[in-house]
Amino acid sequence: MGLLGWSRYQLWWGFLPKTPCLMTPPPPPRSQVMLVGDSGVGKTCLLVRFKDGAFLAGSFISTVGIDFRNKVLTVDGVKVKLQIWDTAGQERFRSVTHAYYRDAHALLLLYDVTNKASFDNIQAWLTEIHEYAQQDVVLMLLGNKVDSAQDRVVKREDGEKLAKEYGVPFMETSAKSGLNVELAFTAIAKELKHRSMKLPNEPKFKLHDYVKKEVRGSGCCRS
Ligand SMILES: Nc1nc2c(ncn2[C@@H]2O[C@H](COP(=O)(O)OP(=O)(O)OP(=O)(O)O)[C@@H](O)[C@H]2O)c(=O)[nH]1
């Protein structure tokens, strides 16, 4: 089309009614992602690894109440703004955590593969999530600290079995080495983006399948 033709086309296009199906939906607003799990499982370290690409080595300082960080991810060419809430795992802060569940769009529930009690407590966390979080909240189970192979007491298969029982996607992570950290947040961001701005004719995004495929592709920790 010549230049004149093109401007005529633009003029004509300007008169077309702007029906919703002809317009790209706006990008999703900021989504809240909450990290939950027992004290010491590595929630803060996972967030710092994701946000700053670093590992917090040294003495363990428990989170008091709640903390948050923002990060923008580009998913399929769309910017997804995540506000990530790092909750305190200690029992005495539980009422603070309860107050935040309702506004969370996604939850990353962590246990520590070197700490059996943190794994056994997952069922109690799921009961709490069921009670306080939104029914359609995006949920993923993470078995953290897989770099500590010599101290591992929870087998990957046990994590997989539990996740399957509750119908949630699962992967093992390491805030220390960075294994699957980016993937966990990207998977959540993809799901949230697809939920908020599904385009006509776009196939449904399947979080479970995506996680399975990507974890297998990383050559580690099948889900
Ligand atoms: N080896 C190893 N250690 C980790 C990993 N993630 C966290 N840690 C260590 O585990 C301890 C607890 O980590 P945090 O991130 O503070 O734990 P948390 O879940 O935020 O704890 P609370 O704030 O009390 O709820 C720290 O000493 C970390 O260095 C990991 O992936 N691998």
Automatic annotation (TrEMBL):
Keywords: GTP-binding, Hydrolase, Lipoprotein, Magnesium, Metal-binding, Nucleotide-binding, Prenylation, Protein transport, Transport
GO terms for biological process, alphabetical: protein transport
Domain of life of the source: Eukaryota
Pfam family, one: Ras
UniProt catalytic activity: GTP + H2O = GDP + phosphate + H(+)
Cofactors named for this entry: Mg(2+)
Broad class of enzyme this protein falls into: hydrolase
Cross-referenced Gene3D superfamilies: P-loop containing nucleotide triphosphate hydrolases
EC number of this enzyme: 3.6.5.2
MF (Gene Ontology): G protein activity; GTP binding; metal ion binding
CDD domains assigned to the protein according to its UniProt record, in alphabetical order: Rab26 (cd04112)
Family in the record: Belongs to the small GTPase superfamily. Rab family.
Record-linked PANTHER family: PTHR47978
Name of the featured protein: small monomeric GTPase
Species of provenance: Athene cunicularia (Burrowing owl)
